[in-house]
Specification:
about 550 residues; mainly beta; 16-stranded mixed β-sheet
Length: about 550
């Protein structure tokens, strides 16, 4: 056992000692040893040909012309990658390209950083095929006739902190055909202008060609992507290609897509699209299956689409949440699938349905209106409304929530201005205790409450400006349609004397929850209360 341990330790030491630093200079010679700046080689390709696991190739300040650097068959490992990087100054590979062109997954653990590849008219600037653990970092690639960076059937790879522009095809392309593509990170890059040399294509392109392979677990984060002649972001498949799953597209800025271009999100499943900013473009998904994708906290404005309205077109969409859209571009549209607009950020926006339905939903039970003849419904845990036609409906959301204990409510907004709030509310069942929470114009301010035109008390808004009150059946009275009005009270006093035989009020509560709405099931059940508005209590 001791001999085995000694052998392992010695083998590890020898493996680490075998790593070599090579140096390449425009004033070097291929007859040199290449192991010091003073003894540098001339061509980077020679250094790559000689590199093994753990070796680092340093390019000394200068410009090389017409280099073909091929990593085909090169294999590093997790502790000993093969690295190509600059030694000092500015390193430019002009009219040159880097590739690994093998037909089997042999190339692995290769890092390329801090160099420029440019002015290559024969294809891609940097292209790896069937490779694993490729890291491309702080690279500048521009003026290439093909793709600036092409990862074809690669896994566990990173493109980070790089500048890519003026490409004749896709700026960055990720594709699969036979082998799976997974665990890809595209982060902190600036990518723009995919129209070099008169050609037009996409800035960031994902292509899944055949059903034999899949593409999954990909993160696109913190990039700035703009000036695409076609799409800024594009997902597409071949005739038998499969979907893209577990994508995280977040914290990116997309802007200025070409005529008819969008941020396309076709074929995504089980993915998220969050915290992105999109302007002078739109988002569109109109092809293939699209399921269980969440849109949240995106800011989208000033589109260049034909009707000058941002249109989010989706099929089989699971959730669209908290999407911030400029007032002049606020249309959600469902074409051929079930589409849920949940907790939309704007208070006013438009929707267009499809035969299968478009649902507007608020998880906190917000009151909202739509311009058609249908009425939203208010359930114990959400409010919603669904349309199945293609007419444009305007949605207006109010900062008021309804929380019934059972069944559902309907509500009509009569007045919501100048610190006066009037609603007509009805219930589907007679016994249905309900919390009504109204965000007013002022915090810690007295408001008068009326029911069906009769004044009965003064309530104080909380530090969050919310007035909350509780409505319940009195004795055997039916829960029928009632008008409720809250309005600013300048005196702060009440002259109302309740009829004690009607049991308007129960024991006042004194606990507060500062505007956090809660479902009735989490609160103690009051006894004989119409409106306990002398407190804002949730406990």
């Amino acid at each position: 056992m001791r001999l085995l341990i000694l052998f392992i330790v010695l083998f590890s030491i020898v493996g680490q000692a075998a790593a070599t630093d090579y140096y390449v200079s425009t004033t070097g010679s291929n007859t040199n040893g290449g192991t010091s700046p003073a003894n540098a080689w001339l061509h980077p390709a020679l250094a790559v040909n000689n590199a093994t696991a753990g070796d680092t190739i340093y390019l000394i300040d200068g410009t090389w012309e017409g280099e073909h650097i091929d990593f085909d068959g090169k294999q590093g490992n997790v502790t000993h990658p093969i690295t190509l990087t600059k030694y000092n100054g500015t390193v430019i590979l002009n009219n040159s390209y880097i590739e690994a062109s093998g037909t089997t997954p042999l190339d692995s653990y290769i890092t390329i950083s801090d160099i420029t590849v440019c002015n290559y008219y024969g294809g891609d600037g940097i292209a790896f095929r069937y490779s694993d653990n490729i890291i491309i970092s702080n690279i500048e690639v521009y003026n290439v006739s093909g793709e600036a960076i092409n990862l074809y059937e690669c896994t566990n790879s990173i493109i980070r902190d790089s500048l890519v522009y003026n490409t004749g095809w896709n700026s960055i392309g990720i594709s699969s055909q036979v082998h799976d593509v997974h665990d890809i990170l595209i982060e902190n890059n600036t990518i723009h202008d995919s129209s070099f040399n008169g050609t037009n294509h996409n800035t960031l392109d994902f292509f899944n060609y055949l059903s034999d392979a899949s593409m999954h677990d990909v993160t696109v984060m913190n990039n700035v992507i703009y000036n695409a002649t076609q799409a800024l972001l594009y997902f597409h498949t071949g005739s038998t290609g499969t979907n893209f799953s577990n994508f995280n597209i977040s914290n990116n800025v997309f802007h200025d897509s070409g005529s008819g271009g969008y941020v396309f999100t076709n074929f995504l499943v089980d993915s998220i699209f969050i915290n992105n900013t999109i302007y002078n473009s739109g988002i569109k998904t109109d092809l293939g299956v699209f399921d269980n994708v969440t849109y949240r906290n995106n800011t989208i404005y000033s589109p260049n689409s034909g009707d000058q309205q941002f249109t989010l077109i989706m099929s089989d969409l699971a959730n669209v949440t908290h999407t911030s859209i400029n007032d002049n571009c606020s249309t959600f549209r469902a074409m051929n699938g079930v589409f849920v607009v949940q907790d939309a950020y704007l208070n006013t926006y438009s929707v267009r349905g499809s035969g299968l339905g478009l649902e507007v939903k608020y998880s906190e039970g917000n009151i909202f209106t739509e311009t058609g003849s249908d009425s939203p419904i208010y359930y114990p845990k959400h409010s919603n409304w669904t349309t199945t036609d293609d007419n444009i409906r305007t949605i207006i959301k109010y900062n008021t929530t309804l929380k019934p204990i059972t069944g559902y409510l309907t509500a009509i907004v009569n007045t919501y201005a100048d610190d006066v709030y009037n609603f007509t509310i009805d219930s589907s069942v007679a016994a249905n205790p309900t919390w009504i929470n109204i965000t007013t114009a002022n915090a810690s301010t007295n408001y008068s409450l009326y029911r069906d035109g009769s004044f009965f008390d003064v309530a104080e808004s909380g530090i969050d400006s919310i007035v909350s009150f509780y409505y319940d059946v009195v004795g055997g009275d039916e829960w029928s349609s009632h008008d409720f009005q809250i309005e600013y009270n300048s005196t702060g006093t009440s002259t109302f004397v309740p009829d004690t035989s009607k049991n308007y009020f129960g024991t006042p509560r004194t606990t507060y929850q500062n505007g956090t709405s809660a479902f009735l099931g989490t609160q103690p059940t009051p006894s004989h209360i119409i409106c306990n508005i002398s407190v804002r209590g949730y406990t």
